[in-house]
Amino acid sequence: MSARPISTSTISFGLVSLPVKLYSTGESSSRIRFNWINRDTGARVKYQYVDSKSGEPVERRKMVKGYQFAKDRFVTFDADELKAIEAQATGEIEITEFVPENDIERVYLEKAYYLGPAQGGGRAYRLLSAALRATGRVAIARHAARGRQRLVMIRPMEDGLILEQLLYADEVRSFDQIPREEGQVSEAELALARQLIDQAASESFDPERYRDEVREKILELINGKVKGEEITLAPSEEAGPRIVDLMEALKASLDPEGGAGKGEEAEAPRLRVVAGGSG
């Protein structure tokens, strides 16, 4: 079944206009969600808006959106005013420059969307994708939508295009703010570390090799609970010796009998399903 677009837009570069559709790159429904339930009645508990001063519930029809410009001081906006603000967002994706594809640090990447051509945009879509591949560059653009202007990158993917939202420079925390201890790396340590990497090296990344084992375990426990089984905490396995010395830890990781991870701490307690629970 074909994917459904979440929005439409127009990419403009030079005098070329390319109508496109944006598609989600993933399925958020895979996340397991729990609801709050009233233990006494078994009914789901709903959220309620409450006045922060009086503590009284507030009906939805009496609520307006506001912006806090000073402590406990707000300027409010009615529906028409909000529409006027959002009307400034054209939805257009305006390309401003083309930069080398490896020039964008990954820390700036926020979210990705597949791009597909809208009606009449097929040739221009293929042309932009081919031109970016041929030049080894990506497009940097402004995308005005949903009340704000986003910085985005458009890059070729297979025979099409993908759009990635970028963070602005003032939204990215400097790595200089991260405390880092001083330390010298010896040649022997570096050689062992490289050997450890070589042992686990692959020629390419295959996402099919990975799955969410935690989610699978949770679903298994949930299904067991639905069937009336009791969930209990399984006894944790005894941890192996914790190796503090870096050289010894590297050597132990390369030991074929000890295996990688010999010097790791004990894993978190695990859950198991016990049949015949009290219900």
Explain what the structure shows:
Among the domains are: 7-27 and 87-170, Beta Barrel (Ku70, Chain: A, Domain 2); 188-195 and 211-274, no CATH class. The chain has five helices and eleven strands; from the N terminus they run ββββαββαβββααβαβ. It has helices at residues 79-86, 122-135, 187-199, 213-226, 246-254, and strands at 7-13, 16-24, 65-70, 73-77, 92-100, 109-117, 137-145, 148-157, 160-166, 230-233, 271-274. A seven-stranded mixed beta barrel has the order 1-2-6-9-8-7-5. Strand 8 (148-157) and strand 9 form a beta hairpin. It is extended.
Structural class: alpha+beta
**End-to-end separation:** 41 Å
Radius of gyration: 27 Å
The strand line-up of the biggest sheet is: 1-2-6-9-8-7-5
Top CATH class of the domain at 7-27 and 87-170: Mainly Beta
Largest β sheet strand count, sense and barrel closure: 7 strands, mixed, barrel
Q: Please state the average pLDDT score.
A: 84
Q: What is the CATH topology classification name of the domain at 7-27 and 87-170?
A: Ku70, Chain: A, Domain 2
Q: Globular, elongated, flat, extended or rod-shaped: what is the shape?
A: extended
Estimate what percentage of residues fall within beta strands.
25-35%
Query: How many H/I helices?
Result: 5
| Named CATH architecture of the domain at 7-27 and 87-170 | Beta Barrel
